[in-house]
Amino acid sequence: MAVSVAQRLSAAGTANALELRGVTRMFGALAALTDVSLTVRPGERRAVLGSNGAGKTTLFNCITGDFLPTLGTIRLFGEDVTEFPAYERIRRGLRRTYQISLLFTGLSVLDNIYLACRGVSRGRFSLIRPRRNEALMHSAEQLATAVHLIDVRDTKVAELSYGQQRQLEIALALAGAPRFILFDEPAAGLSPTERRELIEILTNLPAHIGYIIIEHDMDVALRVSESVTMMHNGRIFKEGRPSEIESDPEVQELYLGGGHG
Ligand SMILES: Nc1ncnc2c1ncn2[C@@H]1O[C@H](COP(=O)(O)OP(=O)(O)OP(=O)(O)O)[C@@H](O)[C@H]1O
């Protein structure tokens, strides 16, 4: 059952989930991001849209700590994480999915999720070969259910459809105790049926989990978000509700009309 925005926000505490102030990222002389300021409330679900080269992936890389910004600050749940390495941000509840698959294709669905749960749990660096942890196994099964893969939990990942593999990636991002997830084009390459399933999975994520979704499929992006940020040439040029963005003439000209690659 879908949860209202108000329910999600009240479930999620007070500090902003994410706050970027004046973030600029240079690659030599090229500004991939210029003076980007962005606030995402706890539990908020936001789409970031823009044509190829707009700076969306660079934005994700700065938020995760894969790249440091050249200028500006990034706060995660009220804490300045601008200089933090990626793993410190993961410890604070940040997760990310990638456009390319990072799955263990020779292992089962459940083993993949179990390993992700173990990877973010205490004792993951133990030198003693661990016994199966029943609590983590239970969490893994719950996540398999959340992404509609419980019926294929013992199937090897290599035998899954492409869409099911993308669903599994979402389960991996949900391992541990995520509070904020960055989804990088989760609908890319999906069939219409798989897209509908993706929309259902994202819509029904736990109330306190906010996210940013980069998505070229406008239909998916606007249906799973309550706010939209439009980027162009490394800058934010428009923010609004999905209905406002969809009907905005400038957006239509730049993005929906031929500007989108
Ligand atoms: N590691 C890098 N080194 C040099 N230039 C880069 C690097 N990463 C990105 N860029 C440049 O920064 C700009 C923004 O790229 P970015 O990948 O963030 O855009 P995007 O909106 O994610 O595009 P797409 O939709 O094609 O993935 C582009 O001009 C790109 O060529």
TrEMBL record:
UniProt superkingdom = Bacteria
Is Nucleus given among the entry's keywords?
no
Q: Which InterPro entries match?
A: AAA+_ATPase, ABC_AA/LPS_Transport, ABC_transporter-like_ATP-bd, P-loop_NTPase
Extract one GO BP annotation from the record: D-alanine transmembrane transport
Q: What is this protein called?
A: ABC transporter ATP-binding protein
Domain ABC transporter, residue spans: 18-258
Taxonomic lineage:
Bacteria, Pseudomonadati, Pseudomonadota, Alphaproteobacteria, Hyphomicrobiales
Entry's Gene Ontology cellular component terms: plasma membrane
Q: SUPFAM superfamilies this protein is in?
A: P-loop containing nucleoside triphosphate hydrolases
Q: Check the record and name the PROSITE patterns matching this protein.
A: ABC_TRANSPORTER_2
The record's GO molecular-function terms, alphabetically, read:
ATP binding; ATP hydrolysis activity; L-isoleucine transmembrane transporter activity; L-phenylalanine transmembrane transporter activity; L-valine transmembrane transporter activity
